[in-house]
Amino acid sequence: MDRTSVPESGAKLKLVEAAEALFAERGFEAVSVRDITKKAAMNIASVNYHFGSRDGLVAAVMTRYVTPINEERIARLDAIERRWAGKAVPLEEVLEAFVRPMVTQVRRSELSERLFLKLVGRTFGEQGNAMPPVLIEQFKVVCSRFVKALSKSLPGLPAEEILWRMHFVVGAMYHAMAQEDVLQMISQGAAGSPTIETTLARFTRFAAAGLRNGLETGDAVVAKGPQATFDF
């Protein structure tokens, strides 16, 4: 039986919905089985019955939110590659295909925009080393497809460099999603209240600049390598 699958109604769904809201607000490690079952108005044994363990419930929550994002990423990349008919896809369009699914899934979720983004951000920030096998396989496909597309969009940039730059981009994306409340607090309101579309546009510009670094003037990135020292 696939314990990560969640039906559209019933006790299993109630547990997942209770868990996801608590995980988003408080983090994965801070939430106990008792917290979840209390919020769901169910007994503690129900978690083991439906998911095998607390870890099984965490895996179900992660899979429920991340799988649609990854599926849409591949679908969008397929579509733009067909449109460009084998030519290099503009970098911003590749980034759009990678990031836009977050916005799509926010709008489909029963969670608020704030909680959805915090939950997905926490999933990678706190649970990245404990991903279910199904998600690991998904990300292998996503990584392979997007690195191949970026290699065409960024000619002259080695695959190893693309992998690291995308790693930095992904880290920035999930940090921004999970920690927006912190930014609002420390900026004392100076960060404003941007819509998710505004944040997406800002992030795409930021990510594109980082990915292009060193290529605008035709520099040989592979020959230069990473900067070893910084003068402050």
UniProtKB/TrEMBL annotation:
Molecular function (Gene Ontology), one example: transcription cis-regulatory region binding
Key words of the record: DNA-binding
Statement: the UniProt record of this protein carries the keyword Amino-acid biosynthesis: no
SUPFAM superfamilies associated with the record: Homeodomain-like, Tetracyclin repressor-like, C-terminal domain
InterPro entries referenced in this protein's UniProt entry, alphabetically: Homeodomain-like_sf (IPR009057), HTH-type_TetR-like_transc_reg (IPR050109), HTH_TetR (IPR001647), PsrA_TetR_C (IPR041586), Tet_transcr_reg_TetR-rel_C_sf (IPR036271)
Annotated region of DNA binding: 32-51
Coiled coil residues, start to end: none
UniProt KW DNA-binding keyword: yes
Domain HTH tetR-type: 9-69
PROSITE patterns: HTH_TETR_2 (PS50977)
Name of the protein: TetR family transcriptional regulator
Organism: Luteolibacter ambystomatis
